[in-house]
Amino acid sequence: MKVVIASGKRKTAVAKAVVKEGKGRFRVNHKPFEIYEPEIARYSVLEPVYLVGDRANSVDIDVRVRGGGVVGQAEAARTAVARALVKYFDDPSVESLFKEYDRSLLVNDVRRKLPKLPLGRGARKRRQKSYR
User: Is residue 129 part of a domain?
Assistant: First the structure.
């Protein structure tokens, strides 16, 4: 039986996707994907599966994701699923389809939060001056 493992990252979230032949089941953190909340994150994670089409009905996808927030986890899972599907089907047309649709399906997003700086409450915010 063919088994493929791939990972994806976004901010501090890390996802690992396992794709193997099966009946089209999709689970995230050992739970059925249908109860994954919020709904907008569910659609984001399913994008690579929709792009592959009927070929996805012949594989089981199991994703484990840790760290970060809801949207970061969804983006990490999305990248992991897309990479695993490309590896599993070993078809250049699938890879080119993903790259044409959205490059972040296959490439991790390297953007990080700016550190807090002195004289302010955050990375960009500064104390106001009151003498003008």
Answer: no
For 84, the enclosing helix (H) or strand (E) is helix 70-89
| Domain CATH for 13 | 3.30.230.10
Q: Is 83 helix (H, G, I), strand (E, B) or coil?
A: helix
- Residues of the domain holding 22: 3-105
Q: How many domains are there within the chain? A: 1
Q: Provide the whole-model pTM.
A: 0.85
- b/e map of 57-67 (b: 16 or more CB within 10 Å)? eebbbbbbbee
Tell me the per-residue pLDDT of 73-130, one tens digit each, with 9 for 90 and over.
Answer: 999 999 999 999 999 998 899 999 999 998 888 998 888 888 998 888 889 988 888 8
| Cβ proximity of 88 and 52 under 8 Å | no
The secondary structure element, H or E, covering residue 85 is: helix 70-89
Closest CA relative to residue 84, chosen from 23, 35, 20: 20
Neighbours of 123 (CB within 10 A): 10
